[in-house]
């Protein structure tokens, strides 16, 4: 390594890393969502699980896990807890007993009215056009990273 490369590498700061920007933004989102989630009595992962079911009810555990980027061993305890809370029900697919289907209950659907009224778009400080561009860029980044890891396997 040349001395100029060593100097440049030594001058790189934590704040220069894209991964740290994404990580710290995720932490900031968590803090911003905390009062909303506390009012709903949910964790963030429970909240996004319910949102995914609002989007498409009666999903298999596998397809829900794919949407949420969660493995079955992580998702199953979340689903069990939400079932105990009365927000969803799990049942074996009558056509394929190996599959478990997840559906919202009336209480799970009612959360939508409460949860959607507490959106944090405004808290980002982004104009609607900026918000859409940032969201799209992050999705592209995530998909590229997922694809690069899959290509290495």
3D structure, described in words:
With 153 residues, the chain is mainly alpha-helical. It has a domain at 33-119: Arc Repressor Mutant, subunit A (Orthogonal Bundle). The protein has 7 helices and 3 strands. The chain has helices spanning 3-10, 18-40, 44-55, 61-68, 72-84, 106-116, 128-152; strands spanning 59-60, 88-93, 96-104. The protein has a 3-stranded antiparallel beta sheet. Strand 2 (88-93) and strand 3 form a beta hairpin. The chain is globular.
Question: Could you estimate the helical fraction of the residues in percent?
Answer: 55-70%
Q: Write the element-wise H/E pattern from the N-terminal end onward.
A: HHHEHHEEHH
Number of helices: 7
Question: What is the rounded Rg?
Answer: 20 Å
Subcellular location: Cytoplasm
GO molecular function: DNA binding; DNA-binding transcription factor activity
Pfam family, one: Staph_reg_Sar_Rot
Protein name: HTH marR-type domain-containing protein
Compact overview of the structure:
With 153 residues, the protein is mainly alpha-helical.
